Amino acid sequence: LIWSFFMKPRTGSLNLQRTGPAASDDEPSTAQSLAANELGNSLQFIGDFPGLRAEVRSVAFSRDGKSLFTAQRGGSVLGWSIDTRKVTREFVVSSDGADVDAVAVSSQWLAAGGSNKVVRLWRLDRDQPPIEVNKFGEAVLSIAISPNGERLAVSTNNSIELYELDAKGARRIAELSNSGQLQGFASYMEIGRAHV
Q: Would you tell me how many other CB atoms lie within 10 Å of the CB of residue 191?
């Protein structure tokens, strides 16, 4: 079973949804009940975000855990205070209202992109216009920033590009491509001191 979380924009509530063959509405499967019970024991609801304006496509926490960033339909990423549940900053990714499907955050950077085929990069400690990382040939599906904040990975359906981040922005250092066969998403994991 694959489970996914999504937030309803009007209510700001978090919902659990099963992806795959539909189960009977009257009688959930044992696997569904077990998974729901396990999640119920390990998750604690701490609040909602009532100011959501559009469908949320991706979320990311700040490194200090005090902020949440929501990538949304309509072209923007909103930065939220976890304590107050209020928007603290808006990052406009697309002025034409294209969907923002991916967001990633480090202690210094916020990167976002989506259906407009562009990734934009902001320094979180400065209020300045974003840096345009690249114009891709297709929609951006996923973005990841390494835990140390020195690398950016961007995936489309056909490639994953790796960038080095510095004070000036991003410089492409590698690309993995597989002519539509890749079917992968960029992600970083911290294993001890190694970044995968």
A: 7
Which of 123, 103, 1, 111 has its CA nearest to residue 58?
103
Q: What is the pLDDT of residues 104-159, one digit of tens each?
A: 999 999 999 999 999 999 998 888 889 998 888 899 999 999 988 999 999 988 88
**pTM value > 0.90:** no
The CA angle 56-11-112, to the nearest 5 degrees, is: 15
User: Would strands 109-114 and 100-105 be described as parallel, antiparallel, or unpaired?
Assistant: antiparallel
Distance CA 170, CA 164 (A): 5
CA distance 121 to 154: 12
pLDDT digits (tens, 9 = 90+) for 64-90: 889 999 988 888 899 999 888 889 999
Determine the Cα–Cα distance for residues 158 and 162; give it in Å rounded to an integer: 14
Q: Are 151 and 128 in contact (CB under 8 A)?
A: no
Dihedral sign from CA coordinates of 55, 60, 65, 67: negative
Alpha carbon 81 to its chain centroid, in Å, reads 17
